[in-house]
Design goal:
The chain is an alpha+beta fold. It has a single domain, classed as monomeric porin ompg (Porin, Beta Barrel). It contains one helix and eleven strands, in the order H-E-E-E-E-E-E-E-E-E-E-E. It has an eleven-stranded mixed β-barrel. Strand 7 (about 160-170) and strand 8 (about 175-185) form a beta hairpin.
Length: about 240
């Protein structure tokens, strides 16, 4: 028979470990929260009508050896969820070269609103290089370089874009803080967009599912100069 005192001694180290993990997670959430508040405070004035909703689903339905196939879907709303202005569907093939390097190819079919209530279909082809720069218990750092080519855009013969992104995540058992930044360079414009996301990644299944939720701030160059926008970003990634 185990006495209460012996049971307490056995459980005490595990309790200390759980408290230490909780404290570290709370500190990480505090740092991410400070970044989000700083980004919001230094950006353009924010009103309810400025907040968009960006939603993305990735489903890996086939994997054999080093090759994997994914299906992708994107839905975007704005104006109090009253304007459904961008939807995308496509496929992605990924080739694992090493434990740190992955190559990817993407095709997207886009249905985009180019004027109020008027939509048109365009096509996008892309190729990417994904690489993991740091993989430690204290944090993981990854980068990606992607080239995109858009076809059949309204009023444009075609568009080339080069995107460079970096992502930092503080790995935790279930919920991990993460931050993402992407810079885009576009033909005829040069540096045309900067996008920052800060939020959490929830792994509800160790090998089969991750949900990311984040605040997003985007600065985009247009015909009237730079425009600032805000969004709530969600990304659901599933693996068969």
């Amino acid at each position: 028979m185990i006495r209460p005192a012996d049971a307490y001694r056995r459980l005490r180290p595990e309790a200390f470990v759980m408290c230490a993990r909780l404290k570290t997670s709370l500190n990480a959430f505090g740092r991410i929260g400070a970044i989000v508040l700083l980004a919001a405070a230094t950006s353009a004035p924010l009103c309810a009508g400025d907040v968009e909703s960006w939603n993305e689903v990735n489903f890996q339905f086939w994997n054999k050896g080093r090759v994997a196939l994914r299906a992708r879907g994107v839905l975007r709303w704005r104006d109090h969820l009253g304007d459904f202005y961008d939807r995308r569907a496509g496929t992605e093939v990924r080739l694992t070269v090493t434990r740190r390097i992955t190559l990817s190819g993407v095709y997207l079919l886009r249905d985009v609103e180019y004027a109020k209530g008027l939509y048109d279909v365009s096509h996008r082809l892309g190729a990417g290089l994904n690489y993991r720069l740091l993989n430690r218990r204290s944090g993981g750092l990854a980068g990606a370089t992607n080239y995109e080519r858009d076809f059949n855009l309204i009023g444009k013969p075609g568009l080339n874009r080069l995107k460079q992104s970096v992502e930092f995540e503080v790995p935790r058992w279930r919920v991990s803080p993460w931050i993402f930044e992407e810079a885009a360079f576009q033909s005829l414009l040069g540096f045309a967009r900067n996008r920052v996301r800060a939020g959490i990644a929830w792994r509800f299944s160790e090998h089969h599912g991750t949900l990311r939720v984040a605040y997003q701030n985007q600065q985009l160059e247009g015909s009237a100069g730079w425009r600032n926008s805000h969004a709530i970003f969600t990304q659901l990634s599933l693996v068969r």
